[in-house]
Predict the structure.
Amino acid sequence: MNQILVSEKLYITPELKRKKRMYKIDFFISIFLVCILFSYYIYAEYDKNKNEAISQEILSNLTFEDNVADDTTIKFSNNSIVVILNTEDPCEVVYSKPVEEQNEEDNIEWLQTASGTKYYALATINIPSINCTYPILNETSEELLKIAPCKFWGAEPNEVGNFCIVGHNYRSDKFFSHVPELGIGEKIEITNLKRETLTYSIYDKYIVEPDDVSCTTQRTNGAKEITIITCTNDSKQRVIVKAREVQ
């Protein structure tokens, strides 16, 4: 006896066509968004590496001059004053203008970004336990924070008061990413423009909200202190590390 197999006929309705079309659109949008996010990640990593290279270039060319009248001059290896960060090759440092053509305001040798922002390195910071060594720039801005840690507030480096330093936490090996791991008693070294290197010992570490700036107080009872400020790993709060000069 023959057996007749009957299959159910599938009808393509307008509603089903619409859903299929929407699925395709959603799929291509998802692929597009993934590509955008991946491109953004690649660019962000490139930008971080570029600025790390710039910071280390500044550090490697920075030497401190002896026997100057006010001990506040930074010298570069080729006796130039202004450094322009070339955007076409961000890791290349282009030195321009001889010393005699520069404005000698405060005997500071100024640096300049490609966008025209002028700044200088007023000290260096070294945290041996986390292999963190960077120049410290003279003021804080979004542009300068991408280059190196910056002075946020307070006294001058290695002077009486509270020298406050802010830097990015990139959750990597760059800048202040490992600062949240520091512990009480660990050492931090600051070298100022007078070639004075002081060692500071961490005596406190805590977390605050972004708008809490109480850590910048200058009430140090005549002591020399530093405060390091960076983000928590989720960027929602701030890690505060306080250290006092080792006598």
Observations:
- The helical segments are 14-61, 142-145.
- The domain at 32-245 is CATH 2.40.260.10 (Sortase; Chain: A;).
